[in-house]
Amino acid sequence: MSSSSPIIVKGLNHWFGRDEARKQVIFDVSLEIARGSLTVMMGPSGSGKTTVLTLMGCLRDVQEGSVRLLAQELFGANESRMVALRRRIGVIFQAHNLHESLSAIQNVRMGLEVHGRGNIVQQDQAAAHMLKLMGLGERINYLPSKLSGGQKQRVAVARALVHNPEIIFADEPTAALDKESGVTVVKMLKKLGQNRGTTTVMITHDNRILELADRIITLEEGAIVKDEMV
After folding, report:
1. Is residue 83 assigned to a domain?
2. Which of 2, 44, 144, 197 is most enclosed, with most CB atoms within 10 A?
3. What's the domain count of the chain?
4. Rounded distance, CA 97 to CA 100, Å?
5. CATH code where residue 97 lies
6. Which residue has the higher pLDDT, 180 or 136?
7. Mind giving me the DSSP string for 81-123?
């Protein structure tokens, strides 16, 4: 790996709380992630996986250490830099976070609207195409209340991918999916890495998809305890 790697973390420490209640939760985490790779982060609940993911994904301020995302330093970064970087990444949460008053295609279209990509016709075409890839071509006009939990999650995945992000951060993206759907989503992420150089960092407890990973990083009590190429 090199300085051209899309994610470079050095000496990352993080605390929650203030004063006497202040508690360190991340301890001297350093890692470098290659372009186009699929990296899985594992570890027990409370091990710091989501905290590290959100620090790398511009969702928390870096308190100590260095996080370089797409050659931009996040430590001390101002809001305009953070916003610009967020437009170049996609985030998939375990909770689908869909807007209940919007249809599936409208929810996915938001992934383009916030980035100012194309006119509404182009946005609808791209959103419909992504939903079809997710097996939801016949449900593009359904409201979330008419979709199953797994279908909602696939809409959320489509929304995160529709603007062709350079990096995807995913927190338990297959938790609400059946085995076939979960493997399909991860294979799609893997293919994006191979075809477009999209880099994916994923938190999972799903042993079904570990064989698709290029690398598995294990955290315990806020520190990396194992880092292996697959």
Report:
1. no
2. 144
3. 1
4. 9
5. 3.40.50.300
6. 136
7. HHHHHHTTEEEE-SS----TTS-HHHHHHHHHHTTT-S-HHHH
